[in-house]
């Protein structure tokens, strides 16, 4: 096969860096191309093109060169998941601590009034109020303990999910839009950054 001619797999999808030429517009030329994990990335005279067959969502991305703010490699994962996990863990711990404190203080038992153990029978309205408060405190204690445990377990699940997203990725920062993340081996990502950054600097 002549150099620069695209190759395709059985599904008709690009399989190697030379395929970038196939996806160029008329008058567009490849400036630099590099393998990227199982796929490839290239800088052309007009765009940055990346193909990632291992991506969970979109596998083919193009960004116009004026919109590329920069490229880098990191393994930060989804920071939103990390934020949710930290908040859930903190709120869960606070709720469990509050519930445990109320349970240790046993305010419900303190507020409950047994007419047989008091020197004089309490007024009916006072007894009703103290019994209601005691019941509310018991319910609040249970809710804090159960809700706190549920939040803590949910936080652990979110943290585990975040850790699974901490894969090395090539990150293409874009002006006015979310960055594009392409999961790749770190060595491939670093090589791509070196190759593509130099090409992007040639405005």
Structural summary, described in words:
The protein has 203 residues and is an alpha+beta fold. The chain has 2 domains: 17-75 and 183-201, no CATH class; 79-165. 44% of the residues lie in helices and 21% in strands. The strands form 2 sheets. A 4-stranded antiparallel β-sheet has the order 1-2-3-4, with helices on one face. A hairpin with a 2-residue loop joins strand 6 and strand 7. Helix 1 runs antiparallel to helix 3 (124-165). Keywords: Membrane, Transmembrane, Transmembrane helix. The chain crosses the membrane at residues 88-105, 132-159.
Layout of helices and strands:
Layout: E1 30-36, E2 39-44, E3 47-51, E4 60-64, E5 68-74, H1 79-105, H2 107-111, H3 124-165, E6 169-174, E7 177-183, H4 186-201
Antiparallel strand pairs: 1-2, 2-3, 3-4, 5-6, 6-7
